[in-house]
Amino acid sequence: MATGVASQKALPAASALPLVGKWANIFKISNEPCTYSRWLYDTYGSIVSLAPGDPSWVVAFGSEFNFQLLSQPALFELRKGKILNVPEGTSLRRLFITNLLDMNGEHHKQQRQLMQPAFHKKQIGLYHNDMVAITQQMLERWQPHEQIELHAEMKKLTQRIVIKTLFGLNDEQEIDRIGTLFDKVATLFLPMMLTPNIDVPGLPYHRILKLADQLDGFTRAMIARKRQETEASDVLAALVQAHDEEGTKLSDDELIGHVFTLYGAGHTTTSSALTWALFLLHQHPRIHADVLAELDGVLHGAAPSLESLRQLPLLDGVIKETLRLLPPAPISMRTAAEACELGGYALPKGATIFFSPFMTHRLPELYEEPNRFKPERWATLSRTPYEYLPFSAGVHRCLGAEFAQLEIKVVLATMLQRYRLALVPNTNVEPKGSDMDPAHGMPMRVMPQDRQFARVPIRGKIQNIVDFV
Ligand code: HEM
């Protein structure tokens, strides 16, 4: 229970150097969420603080703690935006502060309810044709036998899909121009935190504001356009139309923040999932062959329709298994709104608690042979939302989960039928950081789909977290 009498025994604590130790450990869990989580769990068990004698930064592992942290949103809150020191009324503040992942309680509930219709299953079906078309455009550009940097390609692809489905733009160059602008602003987070807020030409903060103003202006113009277009079927059009029973709609400022978050949340995670799915398939030739046989049997070389995508259980299993083994969001955190108790230990108000979908997915009591890629396990396996949580659980569960799963399926079904991607032998493979990007890239050769599936020798830390047998 998260409340009740806390035990007097000391919380197990990771060793830490004096002064910097806690911060070094916080950095480690963000930068190496898989290997460091694994080490913490193996060394200290299911709950551990990141510095001796300091219960204000804690890591809690396993489905029972996931349940406690995610099913009590009033006690365990999301607190990201509070660290931002951005002046009120600026475009920067509108872009970075107004988003579901910075909201709690009634405010979050009201905003999420307004956004939900844009992500209903029926509405997501409307984005399917765009997903297919943009994937096919990418495949047209690839040349047989050329070497590509797969992760960069997947990032570009998911960027195009998210911009296209958000705004309904048709011109490819415009999609890329807007994608670049979004990317530039998204990477401003760190400089923005480190730069004094002095808005004078020539200083970094001025440049940051100018970029944010451009994006704010573009999104505002798109909102005005969507208010005129009654037939549009993109995400922004659905958000603009959305209203509650009292007729309350999302304001322009709210829409701007939400659109920016949808861009960020919507493409880096999905590109990571695609890259890892293609890597895991490559290193498991029998499964790769079986997936292609399934695609042949259902699609016969055609583009995947919504109906046909429902008939691909093995591909479903590949996606579920990729998100289990290498979840694009391997750790998350919550903040204690009150002094409380967790696992029998007293935590102060304001304590930050990390939880780890990655480690939960590796527990042998939940998953047999947890480090192996076994998509077929999902034919019979069913797990609770706290035992399998690549999209988190509870009130902040990913709003785009169905969108992402459809997108991953469309891309894989379209790509695998046409090409066999061959990993460059001896590549150093390592998932890194809180978004699981491959640290050294993922170089692949684009081969015609000749069904000559074969794994290659690899190097790198991936071998410590996935068993290739
Ligand atoms: C494989 C792809 C994706 C993964 C693994 C993923 C994962 C997650 C996770 C773990 C959270 C919750 C974080 C927490 O509880 O602390 C989340 C929230 C969210 N995601 Fe995703 N996501 C993916 C794709 C998408 C896409 C495609 C969109 C939109 C187009 C999206 C939009 C959102 C939004 C708006 C939230 C905030 C929900 C809320 O706070 O109520 N995500 N996502």
Concise account of the structure shown:
The protein has helices at residues 21-31, 33-44, 63-70, 91-97, 105-115, 121-125, 128-141, 150-167, 172-186, 189-194, 204-228, 235-241, 252-282, 285-299, 306-309, 313-325, 357-360, 401-418, 462-465, and strands spanning 47-49, 57-60, 76-77, 147-149, 332-336, 340-342, 345-347, 352-355, 419-423, 431-432, 437-438, 443-448.
Keywords:
alpha+beta, binds protoporphyrin IX containing FE, globular, 19 helices, 469 residues, three-stranded antiparallel sheet, 12 strands, single chain, five-stranded mixed sheet, Cytochrome p450
Span between termini: 40 Å
Biggest sheet, strands in spatial order?
1-2-8-5-3
CATH topology: Cytochrome p450
| Sheet with the most strands, sense and barrel status | 5 strands, mixed
Low-confidence stretches: none
Shape: globular
**Total strand segments:** 12
Whole-number average pLDDT?
A: 92
Radius of gyration: 23 Å
Helicity range: 40-55%
Report the structural category: alpha+beta
What's the CATH C level?
A: Mainly Alpha
Q: What is the number of domains? A: 1
What ligands does this structure carry?
protoporphyrin IX containing FE
Fraction of residues in β-strands = 5-15%
**If helices are DSSP runs of H or I spanning 4 or more residues, what is the number of helices?**
19
CATH architecture: Orthogonal Bundle
Task: State the fourth-level CATH superfamily.
Answer: Cytochrome P450
